[in-house]
Amino acid sequence: MKKEIFLILCIAFFFKANAQTIDPLRTKDFEAQDIWVDSIMSKMTIDEKIGQLFMVQAYSNLDQKHEDFITEMITKYHVGNLIFMQGTPDKQAVLNNKYQALSKLPLMIGFDGEWGLDMRLQNTYRFPWNMTLGAIQNDSLVKQFGEHLGEHCKRLGIHVNFAPVVDINVNPENPIIGNRSFGESKENVSNKAIAFTQGMQKLGVMANAKHFPGHGDTGSDSHHTLPVLNFDKARLDSIELYPYRKVFDAGVGSVMTAHLSIPSLESNTKLPTSLSKNVVTDLLQNELGFNGLIITDGLNMKGAANYATSAEIDLAAIQAGNDMLLIPQDVPATTRLIKQSILLKTLTEERLNFSVRKILKAKYWMGLHNYKPVVLENLNQDLNRVEDELLHRELVENSITLLKDDKKNIPIANLDYQKIAYVKLGDGLGYHFLNTLKNYTKVDVITDSNLDGLLKKLKPYNQVIIGFHKSNDHPWKTYKFKQKELVWLQEIARQKNVILDVFTSPYSLLQVKSFTNIESLIVSYQNSKLAQEISAQIVFGALKATGKLPVSIGNNFKVGSGINTYDLGRLEYTIPEAAQLSSKKLAYIDTISKTVLEKKMAPGFQVLVARKGKVVYNKSFGYHTDQKKIEVKNSDIYDLASLTKILASLPLLMKAEEEEKIPLSASIQDILPSFAETNKATVSVKEILSHYGKLPAWIPFYLKTKDSITHKNSTKFYRATKTGRYNVKVAENLFITSSYKDSIYKYIKEVDQREKEGYKYSDLGYYLFKEALEKKYDNSLDVLVNQKFYSSLGADRMTFLPLKKFNKSVIVPSEKDDYFRDQLLQGNVHDMGAAMLGGVAGHAGLFANANDVAKVMQMYLQKGFYGGRRYLNTETIDKFNHRYYQDKKVRRGLGFDKPQLNPDVKATCGCVSDESFGHSGFTGTYTWADPESEIVYVFLSNRTYPTMDNRGLVKENIRTEIQQIIQDAIIY
């Protein structure tokens, strides 16, 4: 007998030694805390003390009748705590201040905000669900999430947030926890819960560990019934209770007791654990030693409400050891019953005082001894900050998990060998994913009503991206595949190289019977806009995948699985602050856009800003024409005019220089022997690229093809249809004789050189470069630049002769030509000389959208590297981005324009570094890159519409004014 008693004492000592010994409600100024609590306790009536036990639900979207009800609860029944439910932050703040003013003692305000205030309130910020966070390997990010949520709560007057969920979700079929859990690993759940708790409580907002003793392995929802957990104590100790011990040691301030039936802890199987003294007092307080605030789960839930009358349930909860009653259903009756119980001594006043003291200590901890109303000004802005989206992006990026990558598809490289299709499964939207995929290369959407039709359409493709998209409305939404979708998935995977990206719970993968034919598998966890955008960027290597699976998927993928990927140096798409640029200051671009459109400087335009390899502003304004029928989209393409020089001719010349095919020191006669006997024979490549070769600015070749009498295009040179030697297309229904190319080069050979030395911008040298490049590489300029650069860069919307590739509706018209081609120029190059060469020239002819221009400029900025491939050597970039004739007052580098040497010349805003480079184009285009600030800027417009005489954009220096705005937006 003595041995048994000794053993019992040893066990008790062991539990006591391992139980929480700290008091999480005790503040650093505990002496002042005790004085404050004692001073209040000494003046409280029994009714006032009982009122402190209640946390009544309040809504900010209901009528006056509800407000009157809450008012009565506070003024008549002394209710000391409220939990705000659905509504809006503005109305909640107003009601908060109203109710606090009515209360004799400051009210503790509770809230269910597991993934942010969005869980209950409209117009507030939504962060990822816990399952998503469970995939993150850097717990400091979860701590930051706790801090941000703490700031939001603090701003709205919330004192206790009922989070984190510390349930270990070991049951994939759990209907109520699931995505709300950090996962199935007890260590990971504990670490994430601790990080979140520390972050939020750092801000003075109390965390709440729920649902004690563990709701993660239930098959039913305690909102609707009483779930049963048939596990022994040893199992509960090793799994369910593990995270509670950890968060208790970390100082979590409160716990929520769950409505469960656990026979190993409470023999009365009908008695919910929330009402069990064995669980709440003996286990939670005595064995685990928890000294913080103990709050029931909602007492309106069927798991508790079905047990007895509301008042009897509330009394039983207090008798079991809870301190606070969450969402009691009958406050008046409960008040009467508690008072009666004290008279009958079934509940002592000492027991009542014990909980009231803890509640008051908690209120002091929360700062309610120094209560201040919620400030109403700027509330919505403070609850939806740029900092919140920055963190959200980082959380999502760090969560996305690559589970399988048999053929090393991720990230997708070598775009010149890829023909990519996208197939959407699921009933959720996926357009953010698709649109972001399309930022990187051509991705075709393939759909069909039947499988055979779909497979037939997929035959030409060597890479199929399947996005499985489910609703992101809330974490309880179904995540499962339909049977038809599972069949389609397997058949597509059997025939094609597949990347499956799952935008829902990883548990959805439990339905997939075989992963053998699925080469790559990504779990993106949620179907949010950010998850879609960021996952697409991981697919193409702009971002890395580092997440690890927080739950097991049968025997296929164990918890903790995940393959880390690398980035390829492609452009990322994010918000300005991620690149240390101010969103507010960049918004001035929008203001300028209104001026451009109102003054008809251009019918429409595109502006792109990137910094540090991140596109942070990419907008389109206005319409294709003044008829305002087609709005400009980011995917629309513009005639780039002279940007062709640095985006087509120059990269090929750089490559030719590296390969010693066209050295910079070479003369014109070296690269084009037919020029040996001309006045241009000895002009060097370097001089021409610097615009220091004495070449005239241009030659109006088209005027030489006009009839001298009618001033119309001469039938000697042109035909309305393509026929015989009239096979070079100039524009629609206008074909020039193929022999006229020789005339163009003859005119260039014979034209006089400028007598005066010095700088003179000229197109003529690029006619010569085109000819030389095509002879050296035995192919046309447009084919060469696509093969060597655009195709692998993913610049699928950058092209010569766009009508061969695109529908006219996506090509922005450049001019109503009434002087040469007598038609609307749309998809046919504006430059007359380039048109007479068939639309492909070294100085003009290229079309693109701003996004693809940025890719080439970013490649330059990255010293010739982009997308995992080296296109040009660092030394080559540096060699061409250099002024060789600065002493002659020539500002240009080799091909590149550079900042003005003469302050009266507006080549740039005058605010960029001397290392910067770029070019402008006649049609109203401009691009610039600055290695010092790491900024890429692209401006594309059709300022030549309706005619080239429309010079408002030039006169007002709009392009460089925007450049100044971008520079001013840098956050130092």
- Low-pLDDT runs of 5+ residues are 1-18
Quaternary organisation of the protein chains: single chain
Overall 3D form: elongated
Which band does the percent of strand residues land in?
A: 5-15%
Mean pLDDT: 95
Radius of gyration: 36 Å
Category by helix and strand content = alpha/beta
How are the strands of the largest sheet arranged?
Answer: 9-14-13-12-10-11
Note the gap between the termini. 76 Å
Instruction: Tell me the number of strands.
Output: 30
Please tag this protein with its features.
single chain, alpha/beta, 972 residues, 6-stranded mixed β-sheet, disordered N terminus, 34 helices
Structure description:
With 972 residues, the chain is an alpha/beta fold. Helix content is 35%, strand content 13%. The protein has 34 helices and 30 strands. α18 packs parallel to α21 (529-539) and α23 (588-598) runs antiparallel to α34. It is elongated, with a radius of gyration of 36 Å.
Question: Could you give the topology of this structure?
Answer:
Layout: H1 2-18, H2 30-41, H3 46-51, E1 54-58, H4 64-75, E2 81-84, H5 89-102, E3 108-111, H6 130-133, H7 139-155, E4 160-161, H8 186-202, E5 208-212, H9 233-238, H10 242-249, E6 254-257, H11 277-287, E7 293-296, H12 302-305, H13 310-320, E8 325-326, H14 331-343, H15 349-365, H16 379-383, H17 386-399, E9 401-405, E10 420-425, H18 431-438, E11 443-445, H19 451-458, E12 463-469, H20 483-495, E13 498-503, E14 520-523, H21 529-539, E15 572-573, H22 583-586, H23 588-598, E16 604-611, E17 614-622, E18 638-639, H24 643-658, H25 668-671, H26 685-689, E19 718-719, E20 728-731, E21 734-736, H27 740-750, H28 764-777, H29 781-793, E22 799-800, E23 815-817, E24 823-825, H30 832-836, E25 846-848, H31 850-861, E26 865-866, E27 869-870, H32 874-880, E28 917-921, E29 925-930, E30 935-941, H33 952-955, H34 958-968
Parallel strand pairs: 1-2, 1-8, 2-3, 3-4, 5-6, 6-7, 10-11, 10-12, 12-13, 13-14, 15-17
Antiparallel strand pairs: 9-14, 16-17, 16-30, 18-25, 19-21, 20-21, 22-25, 23-24, 26-27, 28-29, 29-30
